């Protein structure tokens, strides 16, 4: 645990010595080096102390020693940050003339000398304190830890990184070992049960698989076909009934007005809406016995449509309270029998072995390990993930098992699962511990985009680049390692976008570690207290009283805002900036923030600024002072123009301004214009992400500057015109690391000729072209790594599919107004990896031809409107892997033919989910399931 605070401090001192030689006097440099060396000497003793602490072998005096060392480390960080803060402020005061010029001025020179001497004096004091701490530590019997210990290991950089999507028990349906029969029974109870509403409560201890089972059933194909209305509500311990009701409203009837006025009004709205529908609603992780007695009044119980409610809880009393009628039932999930536990353990621990089989010499040990897990699938998966990273030798496994045994010797019954999960944490190498702990900063059940995690970890200095990899690539390896250990699970969209989460039980373990380490302070309405030595602060629900809690000086380096109800006023933000002047991370995502004050420019240490989904309209010019800023995210805010001072941020890596397209309305070019950039942007040579930015008409010079950005991996440009195409192609040819490219013209009639791009970026994974092409650029067919392709308003005159069908990794294809011919032909053997195909707004198409052997892996097909197509092509029957079919704005004749008992139904009867999309009023789409009479009635009336 101590390593999580000591290693970053050592590296901060090293960074000061290497990158700031001009601002260190000779004597100061000597003191800094001495301090760095002393900390490195102490570090191995810390590893030994950490091991003994986890086993309960460390006395109170030694624990106090660890606390004192932590205080020394924090003091080092404070002193260095304070010095760099004042020095940056001093340097900024004298403008762009440079430091060497400014110090020649008498005042500036004297002030700079004082700063240096202050640093020297404070470092000397810290060195003296450290010597005393070191002497005390040696008296506690601590020894230098063996370099082979788990905490000093690094990830094997020579090992191939396995795709994390093969990952977790809690996501992959194929790995729901032991739940098939229970799941089948539960599905049957939902579908074949009584016509009145019934409540099914799933009861079991943490880690037994309640949420996993409920998710599996909730998403089951037959359940989706049978019910009309769905809602999944995560309740948790600190729920707010009003928020639960509004969450239900947003899932069940999102098109109704947002603010009803009172909880009674929301309940009445829900009752009226649900009265006419067959619904299934899941309340996951219920802790309060009063919850059901309140929430049930929002759910009609006697509409005789066979409505179902699922409750998951650890508390038997809660389940019994919800067991109101003879039709309700309580299912107790029992621990898994040895044979199922064995199957799960082998799948996880030996996933790289042939058929996941256990080597004979490890079988007895494996069964002993499994016996310690008490049949809890979450624990089995976590422990198996731990052993999967060990050498497959009997000696190594016995060593690890000995430590695991100690956990059980302390508590033979071991009802507290977190003890075992804590062991998985203790086994993490130090460089993974902080990354893992970071998940607790987010609310329970949060799903986080992987790129956001990487950028946050880097801003926190958790990640260090290696000679052959960027920090982002190293961060990806770290996350992959956590996934392989079954501590983090993945959610994947389209095979492209990747998000991750931790199980709620693991989240609880992390919060327990927060108490020990003061890694992050969580503040909410029920927890209005603040520990001044916490480096991170997560503010939930309200900001009332927060400024008083923080006090006049805070060591806080990172602040997150989640689900804030009250407005973040300008005075609050300015005061916060003054009190927390050493901030490195500031995350306002989805917070009620209207203005970013100019005082943000005083946060010289700031590396990460997230304004996504705020109401901010302007970025102050003082942003140019933030020389350490790495990430600026204004996505889905109201920012349309970035100040030219952005060009001063030479360390900026990620500039995000992309507006995400809504699938509820028809996309219009003028609704998504991007953020405006200015001449000089080319000097930001560290940029890896530039998305999505607006280029003024005919700014060839601005496009030409892009060729300097050789590190770009993500590029999104809007407002492009025909005149810049050739220059754009030249710039793109020099971006050898580009992985995502998004290009949009000023309007749908503008032609963007990209044929002159002779050598496209070789590692492109995602390409979106929103422009008129007329002919598909020849180079697209050469993109061997391409996984996703979008073509909007292309108006291609020939069947472009023959040029795309052999792309070996294409998993996602979207074509909107992309083709003006009368038919699309998917030839035999084409699109072997495609999983999702979207075809919209192609008015001339009347034929969709699919040959045998085409699209063998296709899971989702969405198309329409095709006004000339009168019936569903019979070739759809050849898509045997199809799981979802979405049909948009097709004729009434087309829809009627597909209904059950109608002539065309046989063509789609193999598809589990068939959905129709229609706009009857305004721009909002409504969805209807196959076989529902209300759609035919609406079509008849329209």
From TrEMBL:
Residues annotated as domain NB-ARC? 185-351
Which Gene3D superfamilies does the record cross-reference, listed alphabetically? 1.20.5.4130, Helical domain of apoptotic protease-activating factors, P-loop containing nucleotide triphosphate hydrolases, Ribonuclease Inhibitor, Winged helix-like DNA-binding domain superfamily/Winged helix DNA-binding domain
Lineage, top-rank taxon, reads Eukaryota
MF terms in GO:
ADP binding
Tell me where in this chain the Disease resistance R13L4/SHOC-2-like LRR domain is found: 557-886
List, for all copies, the residue spans of the domain called Disease resistance N-terminal: 5-93
Sorted keywords for this record are:
Nucleotide-binding, Plant defense, Repeat
- Residues folding into a coiled coil are none
Q: Which residues form the Disease resistance protein winged helix domain?
A: 442-510
GO BP: any one term: defense response to other organism
Identify the SUPFAM superfamilies for this entry.
L domain-like, P-loop containing nucleoside triphosphate hydrolases
Segments carrying the region annotation (Disordered) are 134-154
Matching entries from InterPro entries are given as: Apaf_helical, Disease_R_plants, LRR_dom_sf, LRR_R13L4/SHOC2-like, NB-ARC, P-loop_NTPase, RX-like_CC, Rx_N
Q: What is this protein called?
A: NB-ARC domain, LRR domain containing protein
The organism is Cannabis sativa
């Amino acid at each position: 645990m101590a390593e999580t605070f000591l290693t970053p401090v050592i590296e901060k001192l090293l960074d000061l010595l290497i990158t700031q030689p001009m601002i260190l006097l000779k004597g100061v440099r000597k003191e800094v080096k001495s301090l760095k060396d002393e900390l490195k000497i102490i570090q191995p003793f810390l590893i030994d102390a950490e091991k003994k602490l986890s086993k309960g072998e460390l006395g109170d005096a030694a624990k106090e020693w660890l606390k004192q060392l932590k205080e020394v480390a924090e003091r080092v960080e404070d002193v260095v940050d304070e010095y760099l803060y004042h020095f940056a402020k001093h340097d900024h005061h004298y403008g762009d003339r440079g430091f060497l010029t400014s110090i020649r001025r008498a005042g500036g020179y004297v002030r700079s000398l004082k700063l240096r001497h202050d640093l020297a004096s404070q470092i000397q004091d810290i060195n003296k304190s450290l010597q005393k701490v070191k002497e005390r530590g040696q008296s506690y019997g601590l020894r230098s830890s063996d370099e082979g210990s788990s905490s000093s290991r690094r990830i094997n950089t020579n090992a191939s990184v396995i795709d994390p999507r093969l990952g977790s028990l809690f996501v992959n349906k194929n790995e729901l070992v032991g739940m098939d029969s229970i799941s089948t029974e539960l599905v049957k109870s939902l579908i074949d049960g009584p016509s009145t509403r019934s409540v099914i409560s799933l009861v079991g201890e943490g880690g037994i698989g309640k949420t996993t089972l409920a998710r599996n059933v909730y998403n089951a194909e037959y359940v989706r076909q049978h019910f009309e209305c769905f809602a999944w509500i995560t309740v948790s311990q600190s729920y707010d009934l009003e928020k639960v009701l509004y969450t239900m409203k947003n899932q069940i009837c999102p098109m109704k007005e947002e603010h009803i006025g009172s909880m009674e009004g929301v309940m009445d709205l829900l009752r009226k809406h649900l009265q006419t529908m067959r619904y299934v609603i899941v309340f996951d992780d219920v802790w309060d016995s009063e919850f059901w007695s309140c929430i049930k009044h929002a759910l009609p119980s006697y509409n005789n449509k066979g409505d179902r409610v699922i409750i998951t809880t650890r508390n038997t009393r809660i389940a019994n309270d919800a067991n109101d009628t003879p039709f309700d039932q309580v299912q107790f999930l029992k621990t898994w029998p040895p044979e199922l536990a064995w199957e799960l353990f082998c799948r996880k621990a030996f996933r790289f072995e042939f058929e996941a089989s256990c080597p004979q010499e490890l079988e007895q040990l494996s069964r002993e390990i499994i016996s310690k897990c008490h049949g809890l699938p979450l624990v089995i998966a976590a422990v198996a993930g731990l052993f999967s990273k060990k050498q497959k030798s009997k000696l190594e496994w016995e060593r690890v098992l000995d430590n695991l045994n100690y956990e059980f010797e302390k508590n033979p019954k071991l009802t507290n699962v977190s003890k075992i999960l804590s062991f998985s944490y203790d086994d993490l190498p130090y460089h993974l511990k902080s990354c893992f702990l970071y998940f607790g900063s987010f609310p329970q059940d949060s799903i986080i985009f992987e790129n956001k995690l990487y950028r946050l970890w880097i801003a926190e200095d958790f990640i260090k680049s290696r000679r052959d990899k960027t920090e982002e690539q190293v961060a990806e390896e770290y996350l992959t390692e956590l996934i392989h250990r079954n501590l983090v699970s993945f959610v994947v969209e389209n095979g492209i976008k990747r998000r991750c989460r931790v199980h709620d039980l693991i989240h609880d373990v992390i919060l327990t570690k927060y108490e020990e380490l003061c890694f992050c302070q969580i503040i909410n309405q029920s927890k209005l207290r603040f520990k001044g030595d916490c480096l991170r602060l997560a503010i939930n629900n309200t900001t009332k009283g927060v400024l008083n809690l923080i006090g006049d000086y805070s060591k806080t380096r990172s602040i997150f805002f989640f689900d804030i109800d009250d407005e973040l006023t300008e005075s609050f933000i300015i005061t916060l900036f003054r009190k927390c002047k050493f901030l490195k991370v500031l995350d306002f995502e989805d917070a009620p923030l209207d203005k970013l004050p100019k005082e943000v420019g005083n946060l010289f240490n700031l590396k990460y600024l997230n304004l996504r989904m705020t109401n901010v309209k302007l970025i102050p010019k003082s942003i140019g002072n933030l020389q350490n800023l790495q990430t600026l995210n204004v996505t889905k805010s109201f920012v349309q123009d970035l100040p030219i001072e952005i060009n001063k941020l030479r360390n900026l890596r990620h500039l995000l301004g992309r507006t995400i397209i809504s699938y509820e309305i028809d996309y219009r070019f003028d609704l998504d214009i991007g953020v405006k950039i200015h001449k000089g942007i080319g000097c930001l040579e560290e940029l890896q992400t530039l998305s999505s930015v607006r280029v003024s008409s005919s700014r060839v010079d601005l496009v030409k500057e892009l060729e300097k950005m050789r590190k770009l991996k993500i590029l999104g440009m809007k407002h492009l015109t025909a005149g810049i195409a050739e220059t754009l192609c030249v710039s793109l040819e020099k971006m050898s690391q580009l992985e995502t490219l998004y290009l949009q013209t000023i309007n749908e009639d503008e032609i963007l000729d990209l044929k002159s791009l002779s050598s496209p970026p070789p590692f492109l994974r995602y390409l979106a072209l929103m422009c008129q092409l007329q002919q598909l650029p020849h180079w697209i067919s050469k993109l061997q790594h391409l996984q996703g392709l979008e073509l909007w308003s292309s108006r291609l005159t020939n069947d472009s599919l023959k040029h795309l069908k052999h792309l070996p990794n294409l998993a996602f294809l979207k074509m909107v107004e992309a083709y003006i011919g009368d038919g699309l032909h998917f030839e035999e053997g084409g699109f072997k990896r495609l999983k999702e195909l979207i075809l919209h707004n192609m008015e001339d198409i009347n034929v969709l031809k699919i040959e045998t052997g085409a699209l063998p892996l296709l899971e989702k097909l969405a198309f329409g409107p095709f006004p000339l197509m009168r019936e569903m092509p019979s070739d759809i029957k050849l898509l045997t892997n199809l799981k979802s079919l979405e049909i948009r704005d097709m004729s009434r004749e087309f829809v009627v033919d597909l209904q059950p008992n109608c002539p065309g139904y046989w063509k789609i009867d193999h598809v589990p989910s068939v959905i129709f999309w229609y706009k009857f009023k305004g721009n909002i789409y409504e969805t209807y399931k196959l076989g529902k009479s209300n759609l035919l009635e609406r079509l008849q009336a329209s």
